[in-house]
Amino acid sequence: MMSDKKSNSLKRVTILKPWKVGRGFATDATIVPFRGDAREFLRTLPNKIVSLVVTSPPYNIGKVYEERASLDQYRADQSRLISELHRVLKDDGSVCWQVGSFVDKGEIYPLDLLFYDIFKLFGFKLRNRIIWHYRHGLHASRRFSGRYETILWFTKGDEYAFNLDDVRIPAIYPGKRYYKGPKKGKPSANPKGKNPSDVWEIISRDWQLGFWDIPNVKAYHPEKTIQPCQFPVELAERCVLALTKKADWVLDPYAGVGSTLVAAAMHGRRSMGSEKERKYYNIILQRLEALRKGDLRLRPLGRPVHVPTGNEKVAQIPDEWNRTKRRGR
Ligand SMILES: C[S@@+](CC[C@H](N)C(=O)[O-])C[C@H]1O[C@@H](n2cnc3c(N)ncnc32)[C@H](O)[C@@H]1O
């Protein structure tokens, strides 16, 4: 198996050039990490400059139903931010808004419902509601364990970039042929691969199942930092490759530890992002510098998720369970 470092040198990765980091927006900068409030940062940007927004917002909603005002406040704050995003987005630009559910006393509140309404108010058009499926997480005992979040992909208008060929995945049965009609006997699959669908589970073995699995970023993951809600760079990479071209501006208003900025810079796009916490902002700077020097630890796009063979110790039925079974006989 290749080391993470070696396998990072995927041929398709073209690090951004020129690499010019600005601490505030400047037309000649190519990477702009901003330490501070998102709306304060957005106010400094010109109209219609950004091609793509990829982000996951904070869920600081408080109690959803007992303190209704808090949810209303959250909606109002996010609406103000989205209004600014609308202003800075190009007419053919896109937004990929990654959210899960807010949970309050066992009741779940799917945040994409709330955000869908806000984006529609500004005239955005939903192109996909992508399911990001992962295998790990808290085990619920009074409802089914949650194993997905969503990414709402909106476009600002009717015209938009969509580079399907750049994100195609191998066909399950490339050898399939038309069995009737004028093309009878000819291969029916697209030689460039198939559309990856709106269920994202990046896992080459499971390409057979038509799934993409971007493993949830957890402690064992090569990208893991101290940010508890980090998303995998791979997730942002899909969006960047499909929805922008080289040198386009990609923005993450809630940058966390900079996964979106890293994904954009890896593929020759300009990027900017705001993060209010200094400790996360410092990690953005460290990750970008590591990327520039070629030693950032990343999970490469499309690497298979580890699938247990069944021989691992953790995959065996515990002895205690077998003993209990024997006693109960
Ligand atoms: C869900 S995390 C994003 C994680 C990010 N996707 C990553 O992979 O690292 C949301 C981030 O938004 C930041 N944040 C919250 N409110 C903010 C604001 N008003 N302005 C800027 N950043 C904010 C939080 O500190 C947090 O790091």
Characterise this structure:
Helices cover 26% and strands 19% of the residues. The chain is an alpha/beta fold. The protein has a single domain, classed as Vaccinia Virus protein VP39 (Rossmann fold). The site of S-adenosylmethionine (SAM) has 17 residues, from strand 11.
List the helices and strands and how they pair.
Blueprint: H1 4-8, E1 31-35, H2 38-42, E2 50-55, H3 68-88, E3 89-99, E4 101-104, E5 107-110, H4 111-121, E6 125-133, E7 148-155, E8 199-202, E9 212-213, H5 233-243, E10 249-252, H6 259-266, E11 270-275, H7 278-293, H8 319-328
Parallel strand pairs: 1-11, 2-3, 2-10, 6-8, 10-11
Antiparallel strand pairs: 3-7, 4-5, 6-7, 8-9
Helix pairs in contact: 3-4, 5-6, 6-7
The chain binds S-adenosylmethionine (SAM).
